[in-house]
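Tokens for chain A. Residues wanted.
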């Protein structure tokens, strides 16, 4: 069985990190353990502020004598590069952009292959498929693999019900906390690797049980009126309960206060966002205490 859907992720880009000190440099900055990275195995992680707040997420995979970082494109890419450069100091590290390279997502069926570039399993969940970093076009990769060419809506229809965040679309830079967004259960933070920037707050949040919100997959039911948009406030009995993030059809991600989710269940009251009511889904991989 071939892979059935390949999607160009045009909101993602490829950064390169080379040089003799590349492993030591990244290892001291990011939440993932980059010593596990190889051409066949990637990690998902984040760069935090010194205060432990989210700045950028990325996938890292090895190719030859460099790392390829699958990260957000545009202004977000430029900000990521500037931030890494600020911490380079005298390290033997070369930062660059893989010009003309593309990020593709592939899901359903067997692992795809490419004549140029790298393919790796999404390290967050077994059902999340694969990522492809390549200078080839999505059309060429889809044709070579006998796959359908999908759209970002197809990708969102896979990731949103699974509870997978997508960069700044779902996590507010400078404010979001990793453990609110599943980085612990989704293998985005390594607790045994040693120090990284923002580790102290991240560890304190975990070991003192300070997580007060979580990013949940939710189902929206609209009975008349307009469907809510990303950023809409979620209410419980007129009180703030959280915020909607990515939305695709009747599926969405919502950053919700755990106390409000528990209260809604115990009192049998609906969570609402505008004209919509929300049904919270807790995936099997998520560990929460309501």
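Reply:
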């Amino acid at each position: 069985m071939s892979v059935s859907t390949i999607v160009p992720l045009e909101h993602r880009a490829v950064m390169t990190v080379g040089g003799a000190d590349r492993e030591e440099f990244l290892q001291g900055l990011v939440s993932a353990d980059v010593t596990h990275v190889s051409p066949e195995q990637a990690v998902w992680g984040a760069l935090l502020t010194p205060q432990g707040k989210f700045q950028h997420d990325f996938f890292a995979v090895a190719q030859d004598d460099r790392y390829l970082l699958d990260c957000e494109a545009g202004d977000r890419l430029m900000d990521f590069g500037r931030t890494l450069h600020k911490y380079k100091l005298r390290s033997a590290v070369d930062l660059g952009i893989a010009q003309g390279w593309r990020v593709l997502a592939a899901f359903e069926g067997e692992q795809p292959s490419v004549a140029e570039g790298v393919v790796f399993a999404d390290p967050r969940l077994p059902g999340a498929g694969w990522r492809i970093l390549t200078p080839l076009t999505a059309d060429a990769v889809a044709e070579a693999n006998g796959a359908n060419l999908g759209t970002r809506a197809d990708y969102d229809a896979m990731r949103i019900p699974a509870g997978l965040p997508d960069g700044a679309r779902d996590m507010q830079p400078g404010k979001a906390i990793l453990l609110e967004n599943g980085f612990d259960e989704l293998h985005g933070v390594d607790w045994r690797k040693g120090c990284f920037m923002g580790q102290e707050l991240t560890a304190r949040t975990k070991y003192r049980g300070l997580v007060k919100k979580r990013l949940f997959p939710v189902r929206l039911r609209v009975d008349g009126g307009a469907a809510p948009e990303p950023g809409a406030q979620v209410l419980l009995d007129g009180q703030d309960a959280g915020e909607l993030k990515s939305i695709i059809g009747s599926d969405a991600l919502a950053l919700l206060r755990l106390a409000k989710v528990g209260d809604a269940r115990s009192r049998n009251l609906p969570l609402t966002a505008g004209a919509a009511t929300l049904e919270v889904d807790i995936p099997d991989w998520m560990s929460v205490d309501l």
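The first helix runs from residue 22 to 27. The CA atoms of residues 29 and 177 lie 16 Å apart.
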